[in-house]
Amino acid sequence: MFFRKSTDNDRWIIVGLGNIGSQYDNTRHNCGFAVVDILASEYGIDVSKKKFQGTIGEGKIQGEKVVLVKPSTYMNLSGECVSKVMNWYKATLDKLIIIYDDIDIETGAVRVRAKGRAGSHRGMKSVIEHLGTTDFPRVRLGIGKQPSFMDLAQYVIGYFTTEELEKIIEGRKKASEAVVSIITKGCDFTMNKFNCGEK
């Protein structure tokens, strides 16, 4: 897939991964959607236009043009929406930010990467497959590993426990701040700030 060289007028494409349907609201797998909702609320962006197999909203964050995206393909096919948005806006990979949950990070912790593989996350696998590269920024919000007695699929579409909820609410807010930091200060600065103390 071809992406043009960056220009000063490029929009940031900010994608939160999740599953559509009210039954998935506030589940572990919908952390990406939740962070997009926080950004939409804070910056007055209406994310309701149905397009590109998702819902999108255009606006500005700290003076930078952005497109907020929530794929409606369900998690495993997220890349279909992302690739269509990227092609339509002729966006550059350095201005794409994917936000998603990660079982390999403790609940509520945030990690930022400039590139990397998908791990076990099927939504990210789909995005990488459709874009043909791993070279784009991402913000990962930890949901912790599932208990040994629980299937992974059951765990990620489940709800947070009371004990986890306070951590995840704080983590969603922190993840939204990481997105703004990438936009305003760059990925390297943001990694240094938010990955401090990473094990």
Concise overview:
This protein is an alpha/beta fold and 199 residues long.
Please give the count of helices.
6
Find the count of extended strands (DSSP E, 2+ residues): 7
Overall morphology: globular
Beta-strand share of residues: 15-25%
Helical fraction: 25-40%
Taking pLDDT < 50 over at least 5 consecutive residues as the criterion, the unreliable ranges are 1-8
The main β sheet shows up as: 7 strands, mixed
Distance between the termini: 35 Å
Rg value: 15 Å
- pLDDT averaged over residues: 92
The ordered string of helix (H) and strand (E) elements is EHEEEHEEHEHHH
Strands of the widest sheet, in order across it, are 2-3-4-1-5-7-6
Class per helix and strand makeup: alpha/beta
Describe this structure in words.
The structure is a single chain. Helices cover 36% and strands 20% of the residues. The chain is built from six helices and seven strands, in the order βαβββαββαβααα. The protein has helices at 31-42, 78-89, 122-131, 152-156, 162-185, 187-194, and strands at residues 12-16, 49-51, 54-61, 64-71, 96-102, 110-113, 138-142. The chain has a seven-stranded mixed beta sheet with strand order 2-3-4-1-5-7-6, with helices on both faces. The radius of gyration is 15 Å and the shape is globular. Mean pLDDT is 92; it is low at 1-8.
